[in-house]
Amino acid sequence: MKFLLVFDFDHTIVDENSDTWIVKCAPEKKLPNGLRNSYRPGHWTEYMGRVFVYLGDNGVKEDEMKRTMTTIPFTAGMVDLLGFIGENKELFDCIIASDSNTVFIDWILKAADFHKVFDEVFTNPAAFSSTGYLTVQNFHAHHCAKCPKNLCKRKVLKEFLDKQLERGVSYTQIVYIGDGGNDLCPVMFLKKDDIAMPRQGYTLEKKISQLAQDLSPVECSVLVWSSAVDIMSYLKLLIKK
C-alpha cells in the first residue's frame, strides 16, 4: 500500500513566496505603490498578471527571471526530505497543490533536480508570450466559497484521488503538508486516518487550532512541523509500521 504526500509550495517546500521573490527582478527591487495596492482578496492570479506585465514593460527577460527564481532558498531540512522521498518512491506518491505557477515551480524543482520526486503539480498555468512576457491563468473554476477564485485545493485533491481510484490506486494514508489559509479547505476533506502537517507559526496551524477551540476540530490527526526534518521523522515511522 502507498502513502500520498500532498505538498503546498510557497513557505512549505521553499522558504519564501515565489510570487513575491520575483520582485527582486523589478527596477530597484520593488513595485510601484499603485501596482502593489491593486491586489483584491481572492484575485491573486490577476494581480500577478499585472506584476508580470510591469516586469515585461521594464525589459525583464526570461533568463533573468529564471536566474532569480532558482536562488530561492528551500525550507530548513527540505532538501533532505525530498531526497528521502525520492529514494522511497515505491512507497510514496507525491503531488504539489500550489497557488504559484507552472513556470516558477518547474524552474525551481529542475534546478535542484527534485522534479522526479513529484508525480503531478497542480498550479496556475504560466507561459511566456511571443513578446517575451510571462502570462499566468487561473488553474480552474470552482464553486467553493472558502477558496480564492482560481484554486480550490480540496477540489484538486478530490479529483486526483478519484482519478487514482479509477486506476486502481488507493492510499493507506494521506499526509498533507502546508502552511497557508488556502490549505485549510483540503485539510478539512481529510479523514481520521490521514494527517495534516501545518507549519509552526503559520496561518494553517492557527486556523486548525481555532477550529479546535470552536469545538469543530478537523477529522484528521494534526502534527505541527518547524523543519522538514520533523516531517521526515514522521515518514520514517510510517514506513516502519
UniProtKB/TrEMBL annotation:
Tell me which InterPro entries the record gives: HAD-like_sf, HAD_hydro_PyrdxlP_Pase-like, HAD_sf, Pase_PHOSPHO-typ
Q: Does the keyword Metal-binding apply?
A: yes
> For Mg(2+), which residues are the binding ones?
8, 10, 179
Keyword list (alphabetical) reads: Hydrolase, Magnesium, Metal-binding
Q: Name one GO molecular function term.
A: metal ion binding
Q: Which residues form the active site?
A: 8 (nucleophile), 10 (proton donor)
State its cofactor: Mg(2+)
Record: residues binding substrate: 19, 99
The Swiss-Prot or TrEMBL record describes its family as follows: Belongs to the HAD-like hydrolase superfamily. PHOSPHO family.
Q: What name has this protein been given in UniProt?
A: PHOP2 phosphatase
Which species is listed as the source?
A: Ciccaba nigrolineata
Name of encoding gene? Phospho2
